[in-house]
Amino acid sequence: MATQEIPTTGREWHLAARPAGRPVPSDFALVEAPVRQPGPGEILVRNAYLSVDPYMRGRMNDVKSYVPPFAIGAAMDGGAVGYVVASAAEGFEVGDAVLHGLGWREYATLPAAQSVKVDPELAPLSYYLGVLGMPGLTAYAGLLEVASFAEGDTVFVSGAAGAVGSLVGQIARLKGAARVIGSAGSADKVAKLVDDYGFDAAFNYKDAPVAEQLAAAAPDGIDVYFDNVGGDHLEAAIASLNPHGRVTLCGAIAQYNDTSAPAAPRNLAAAIGKRLRLQGMLVRDHAALQPQFVAEIAGWLKDGSLRYDETVVEGVENTAEAFLGLLRGDNTGKMVVKL
Ligand SMILES: NC(=O)c1ccc[n+]([C@@H]2O[C@H](COP(=O)([O-])OP(=O)(O)OC[C@H]3O[C@@H](n4cnc5c(N)ncnc54)[C@H](OP(=O)(O)O)[C@@H]3O)[C@@H](O)[C@H]2O)c1
């Protein structure tokens, strides 16, 4: 077994309590835990970047969903990239960079088969948690496959300055959208959408009702709505959608902290008359697109036609705060934690 010097303990985050509504710092606990040496077929990884993602809010509730809930008093998990520091697995060497699912901690011991080797020369390591990883594939598959995007479509995306949304808008532009419109939660983000990402129009959803601002930004209506937010955004989009419009139901972050059922959209019945298609998506169904996605996105990153931002929070001790910041909108682009 190849090894390099490793401590006997490392820090990991536990869910201390199930949040009621918006999570608070006391819902999380940073715990010192033993670092386990790898058994046969396993690797020990020193994590370099941890991902915090909106779906993790759902895992803090004790409800059955497409991913199991976090257990109280146990280590949380999620996307992470890091370096192998000990290996008992064939084909994995100390120093290899890997992507895996045991985030929210400094050190992770796991079967090598549950990790994927990544190339730190090809792109910064953290990009495998964002533009070249799960959020990137969500944007790519959600627009091109789920929404059946076609050249000449007018596209509206909410959460447009975030990891998924910023890529949806840019991919639509690069693929020949007639018009790309985005919404986000601050003036700086709105300026970035137009100036840096090349959106045709953008608005701050906190300034005035979404329906009014969307109607002004899309006088000829929209053909595709990529929904990251739900609620009044979805209701406004239904109003603005042209006949045979398509909606990718990707997320509903405006409702993740709600403790009662949402009121909007109140106009869902309009989907019938307009023959709209509203389709939910899970990124895991689109793994077959991965090679095409990486090739196309990496090309655009290299020639500068795709811009990618990250908000980097430093230190494992700030992981819970990074997650709370994500729910508040502190991030532009992908929120990651650097260890
Ligand atoms: N279906 C799937 O397979 C899949 C996969 C990945 C992600 N998702 C979903 O995609 C969405 C975006 O994920 P992401 O990773 O790219 O996160 P993100 O957009 O980078 O970060 C979350 C953003 O949500 C916005 N937000 C927070 N509260 C809001 C509210 N009440 N109304 C409107 N916006 C609000 C904030 O930006 P502002 O400053 O603009 O408010 C914040 O920056 C999420 O809904 C997520 O659950 C789904």
Q: Outline of this structure?
A:
The chain contains nine helices and 16 strands. It is α/β, with parallel strands linked by helices.
Describe this structure in words.
With 339 residues, this protein is an alpha/beta fold. It is 25% helix and 26% strand. It has 9 helices and 16 strands. It has helices at residues 55-59, 134-146, 163-174, 187-195, 210-217, 232-240, 270-273, 290-303, 319-328; strands at residues 2-3, 9-15, 28-34, 42-51, 80-87, 97-100, 107-111, 116-117, 154-157, 179-184, 201-204, 222-227, 241-249, 277-280, 310-314, 334-338. The strands form 3 sheets. Strands 1, 4, 5, 6, 7, 8, 15 and 16 form an 8-stranded mixed β-sheet that branches. It has a 6-stranded parallel β-sheet with strand order 11-10-9-12-13-14, with helices on both faces. The protein has a two-stranded antiparallel ribbon with strand order 2-3. β13 (241-249), α7 (270-273) and β14 form a beta-alpha-beta unit. α2 packs across α3 (163-174), α2 crosses α8 (290-303) and α5 (210-217) packs parallel to α6. The longest helix is centred in the last third of the chain and has 14 residues, at 290-303. The model has no long low-confidence stretch (mean pLDDT 96). It binds NADP nicotinamide-adenine-dinucleotide phosphate. NADP nicotinamide-adenine-dinucleotide phosphate is lined by residues 53-55, 135, 138, 159, 161-165, 184-186, 189, 228-229, 250-251, 253-254, 281-283, 326-327, 329, 331, 334-335.
